[in-house]
Write a structure and sequence with these properties.
By secondary structure, the chain is of the alpha/beta class. It contains 14 helices and 15 strands. Helix 11 crosses helix 13 (386-399). The two termini are 22 Å apart. The structure holds zinc ion. The site of zinc ion has 4 residues, from helix 8.
Amino acid sequence: MRTWTPPDLPTLPTTGQAPRLFNTASGRLEHPPLNEGRATLYVCGITPYDATHIGHAFTYLAYDTLQRAWRDAGLEVEYAQNITDIDDPLLERAAATNVSWESLAENQIALFRSDMFRLGLIPPDHFVAVTEQIDLIAQSVQKLRQLGFAYPVATDDAAGDDLYFDTQAASEQSQWRLGDVAPYERELMLLLSAERGGDPDRVGKRDPLDPLLWRAARAGEPSWGTVLGLGRPGWHIECSAIAVHFLGNAFTVQGGGNDLIFPHHEFSAGHATAMTGTPMAHIYSHVGLVSYQGHKMSKSRGNLVFVSKLLDGGTEPAAVRLALLAHHYREEWEWFEEDLITAERRLIAWRMGSSGSGTRHEGQEPASATQVIEQLRQALANDLDTPVMLAALDAAWDRGVDRPELLVDAVESLLGVTLKRAERL
Ligand code: ZN
């Protein structure tokens, strides 16, 4: 699928280092292996019906920052992102708002694309809608069935059987074990499964946690003709099939919001590992959820702050980036309007500092741009510590910098914050 125009990334005279990253699966900071100077990233994409709220932007910005760090370290980066453009919530929203699910998805994808462009995010190399890859996904389910990791569950109202993933068989006969990604007790898994698209109460399943791989066609629902007959794919297998097809197995980082740890990333990893015989990714990375008005931002509650509304209201993209980058990506935090005011003040201070019109401190030597860049890179390499980067830049611009043009380039390259030019529209 078409993406958006990439941002300019100024090249800096020296290179940085590849970051160590927190791995949810191990609970530790790790240096993922980077073979032949190449890093591969899969980030779960949106279900196109509530694009793009601040929580989404915080997640995609975290992986934009990771890519900037990798590129600064001289690595070649390959990045894939899906769009879940067929799923129950999309169909429900389309029915509730009396539009076709296709046009709802198309409009929301266009809005997402526009938001990502305006925020200056690096576009994926592979931006893949699920509806573009139904055959690929069905073949992956077929493979799991042939390997003995999928089983049918009869339905009353469909032409064929639904197919489910056999958690126990995969845990016993593949390199994946339930709990490899999500450090949760079974009780919590059952609860989260029910909350996040699973169906633990479905009759006929071998284990209540077993996730749907394939939903046989129902009257009035969209379906596709495939090797499995008429139907549509389950949620987790979409990402397993797309990620492995476009990036290969054992890719570097699988990323997404904290709410994807279970069941989505657990079972995406389970499917991919059972299918290929090797673990899906080296690092399972997760971004903190953003609250608003005292609750997690969520479509069901309706407490969403939309990027497009902020930008249409005259907020600069650089200010939105700074408001988000002020929080470490793993932090759970609450959005307040003051976050934006603080970011706007910071942007003005940095611009004044970089143009030499900031406060002058008598008798103080200006900061060395080279040394400040080194500080920025160290913070970036330490699990993308953007709050420390922002603090280092506050201090440097306040003090004055010996080569401001060099530091302006570094701020643009590493943080995507433009200080010198007119903003992108
Ligand atoms: Zn996914």
